Amino acid sequence: MSLDIATSIDSVTTADVAPAPAVGSRTPLAIVDCDIHPLPRRSSDLNPFLSARWRRHLETYGNGNRSPFFANTPYPRFTPALSRRDAWPPTGGLPGSDLEFMRSQHLDANHVELGMLQVLAPSGMAQRNVEFGAALCTAVNDWQVAAWAEPEPRLKASITVAQEDAHAAVAEIEARTGDPHFAQIAMAPRAFNPLGQRAYWPIYEAAVAAGLPIGVHAGGYSGAADTGSGHPSFYAEDHHSNAMSMQTLLSSMILEGVFERFPTLRIVLVEGGFAWAASLGWRLDQHWARFRDEVPHVPLPPSTYLKRNVWITTQPMEEPTMPRHLREVVEWMGWDRLLFSTDYPHWDYDEPAQCFGVGFDDAQRAMIFRDNALHLYGDLRPGRS
Amino acid sequence: MARHVVAPLAELPPGTRRQVTIEGRDIVVLNIGDELFALLDRCPHQGASLAGGMLCGFVESAVPGEYRMSHQGEVLRCPWHGWEFDVRTGRSWCDPRRIRVRSYDAHVESGQTLVEGPYVAETFPVAVEDAYVVVDL
């Protein structure tokens, strides 16, 4: 991810500010946020977790994702550091790099009882040098615990893995199994191949053995264009392609038979929207009915797996002009499938008190904002487990 | 409608802004090139404080290859999702008829006038010889 820091905001006078009253009249619901992005304060923060060899490698050769532009994202972002303009810590550093500020601006202010960390950068998941990638994943995982999950028990780490090297990924998962700081495994949807393919199956086997869901967060560096037909021209297109990448991996996992081979595998799609899920289910079911002799290893209608093995986070949620349309989509998926997420501190953050234009009853609200995540991950809230 | 003195003008020079709370409402007051503007400090989309947003302009284009800038420095962009509001009207750029942020009249008054008329300024004394930023609410 490119961290292009340009923050020339004109001066903001913040004197005499009374705290804003909580939005909405309800008692705020304590929530689980299934997508929070931490960043190191300095790149050297990872050094204690890298061996001398890999520290030297990083200093000499840098951090090279499988991307057209070395050490960069394929597209310039909408805002500096991809972030909310108000999320730059007053103490300096990048958004998401200051635990104290994250506590006050997000965890405390939004009543976050439990938050799932997703580290986008630095990332060892798609390094050109896979051995370095595995070492970087290990370092990122150690750092997540030391800098975030240990000092802040509301935050849970995700095990980043070098997903193109299943052997290394499995070793990393096994090394972390049983460590209560980790709630899930992290993978990226833009892998070198569609994620249902056999090369990735050892990772799924290890996830099932560890009893951990896999949180597949939008992004990744496949080395190919983000769409099925070349590079998009605009960030608006690139951003939308997150949803397409989720559909690609889901079709692949279902039709390759991943969920038949690993019926208890749990996949969480993070930050790819969700309103498309119904249409994907309908289309796949229709194709499956016609071509099922091509995929005899998929004995059930594809939507069955979608509703059994897959959870989807809410942000950046679709915002139809008629909010009831969103409700219809949720009803198709099932109220138990959606996990609330904010994407803090990124610019397309969803505000818990404001983001759904849909009316929920209290039970539905509690499911989406908290209980679905507690069922999926276990009740990992501090003092509860 | 009451006049609320929100700051001595000297404390809100051009290029600065201030968040104030008037009658329980969070309001952002901006000084843009010696003109004063006041908007409700709450984005109608998801409720972000607009005070942390940057000021920009509008880009318009009738045909590819030609464009023009307008409202330079008079468009407040929400720090979260980039919704843009004309500081003069509070109207959204993308959907001006349906979406707007409440705007208020903000102007400068002399201490002399304020001492004479009804006004609200609880937090600081008003001196006859100074100028003050006043928001009508």
In short:
The complex is a heterodimer of chains A (385) and B (137). With 385 residues, chain A is α/β, with parallel strands linked by helices. Chain A has eleven helices and nine strands.
Would you write up a description of this structure?
The complex is a heterodimer of chains A (385) and B (137). Chain A has an eight-stranded parallel beta sheet with strand order 2-3-4-5-6-7-8-9. Chain A is α/β, with parallel strands linked by helices and 385 residues long. Chain A is 35% helix and 10% strand. Chain B is 4% helix and 43% strand. Chain B is built from one helix and ten strands. In chain B, strand 5 and strand 6 (68-77) form a beta hairpin. The A-B interface holds A 9-18, 20-21, 23, 78-79, 84-86, 347-351, 353-355 and B 11-12, 15-21, 24, 26, 41-42, 45-49, 51-55, 79-82, 123.
Residue fraction in strands of chain B: 35-45%
**Average pLDDT number of chain A:** 90
Number of helices of chain B: 1
Global mean pLDDT of chain B: 92
Estimated radius of gyration of chain B: 16 Å
- Overall helicity of chain A: 25-40%
Q: Which overall shape of chain A is indicated by the principal axes computed on the Cα atoms?
A: globular
Strand order of the largest sheet of chain B: 2-3-4-8
What class, by secondary structure content of chain B?
A: mainly beta
**Runs of chain A with pLDDT <50, length 5+?**
1-25
Sheet having the most strands of chain A: 8 strands, parallel
The SSE string of chain B, one letter per element, is EEEEEEEEEHE
- Tell me how many strands of chain B there are: 10
State the end-to-end distance of chain A. Answer: 35 Å
Largest interface, per-chain counts? A-B, 26 and 28 residues
Largest sheet of chain B: 4 strands, antiparallel
Helix and strand run of chain A: EEHHEHEHEHEHHEHHEHEH
Secondary structure tally, helices of chain A: 11
Number of strands of chain A: 9
Q: How much of the sequence of chain A is in beta strands?
A: 5-15%
> What general outline of chain B do the C-alpha atoms trace?
elongated
